[in-house]
Amino acid sequence: MEFIIVTLVKAAVWAAAILFALLYLQWVERKVIAHVQLRMGPSRVGPHGLLQPLADVVKLLTKEDLVPAAADKFLYLLAPFLAVALALLPVAVFPFGPEVEIFGVRTSLQLADLNIGVLFLLAISSLSVYGIALAGWSSNSKYSLLGGLRSGAQMISYELPLAIAVVAPLLLANTLSLRGLAESQGGYYWGWIPHWNVFRLPAPQIVGCLVFLIAGFAETNRVPFDLPEAENELVGGFHTEYSSLKFACFFMAEYANMISSCAFATLLYFGAWQPLWPEARGSWLFPTFFFALVGLVALYHGLHPARRKDRVTLPVVALAFFGIAAVFQIPFLRPILLPIFWFGLKTGFLLFTFMWVRATLPRFRYDQLMGFAWKFLFPVAMVNLLVTGWLVAVYGE
Amino acid sequence: MDLVLFLTFAVVAVGCAINLVLQRHPISAAISLIGVMASLAVLYLLLGAEFIAAVQVIVYAGAIMVLFVFVIMLLNAEAEGKTGRSLVARYVGLPSLFLFLSLLGFLIHALYPSSERTTFGGFTGGTAENVGRLLFTDYLLPFEVTSILILVAILGAVILARKEAD
Are the Cβ atoms of B51 and A152 closer than 8 angstroms? Predict the structure, then answer.
């Protein structure tokens, strides 16, 4: 009984967190891209455009919900639902931290610890192509169909290097459980360099990590691999005919896929919740310093005489960050917050990389896209796997 | 709980399979087949074969069926028209189906008496580790022969595709 209640509470917290992250990830992305391109980004709705996501939701809700007359009705309705459901599913198996004690209840910061966790994630990602492919086909429009076909071909092609890149860290960890994978990366070389799989002896996975991230960009249909929705060729690609909430579903699915892709990379290569340097050497103080520094920067800008508009908002933001910094010093909350902080920091950095790349790189041409997957990425992933396997067999424990 | 899940997904699997035959449009038939594959994966999971369940989804639902759907979309296949069925098919079809099913049921019942039936959770050797160990010890030769067969098939596909391009 206790197990059911704890799991329900965790599921509710997880769902709230992921939906909030989805809402604000889009705001963060627009701001990051704007600043890379020397623009302001959203700034009208609320201070610094902070209420922009809510305005967008209201806008999407009130749009007319069109269904094309020639569409296959059932599949047309099924596709966005499928896309968003499959995109939200992976959160159920990610371990955000080790086993902790909250109000006298021992539980792990994970919804379900499958001993085939990695295979589960691969299975979900291999199914997620259906949402896009069916949307493209059922709309009965040539742009949508081309977008759906492109995404089908692209996702099948990039799944191969992705899956092969995933195998190499599994050889190092010797388990298929995500929890085991995270725990195997604890510890430090010479007291400083963490046992993350990117640094892990005998076979550091630097190349594997790059292959995984590049294939991750392609799997989530992000720039420079956003051929399925190339707007200058295909109008909107697979979602050309979708409007209102159904369009919002695809939008949410893209961002949820981005989050799970980054969280998977964090788990496989960057040691999940393991801190960058040992806790004995003060890594537990880092979150406090980090948030306090952010608060100080906000305070400095808020009190700057040239920024009269932000005289109230930025000091309030600064106070909020000082509050978060103080929360990390409460002893009984620390074992829960620290792992979540490190996991979130690494995932957040990877998400920032996704946005950075989107703001920087142009789109691939279609033949370049396919050639890159089959002639470069796939062989590189294969060689990486062979070298890792050989090193683990010869020098492994 | 196990029984409820089994009944649910068994019904879904059979329903999808019947739908697969009845649907006139290839895409709808393909979607039903994906439903069959996915519910089969859940049934494997209920029996304790975790690895097989995951591989069922990855390989069949996630790779082979994607290819099917892709080809159907690419060829832009239309719904099939009804052909006039022959008299034999109309009058002998259903009875022979029932005959076949009852024969199959009788044979299974005769070969595997109900005392030996499988139970949910009774089988624990289905983890990836167990399957891997068996593949590389007891079944090494069939495993290697299969991989060579697949390699030959890939080479054949490459050669066929290259001829097309010239």
Answer: no
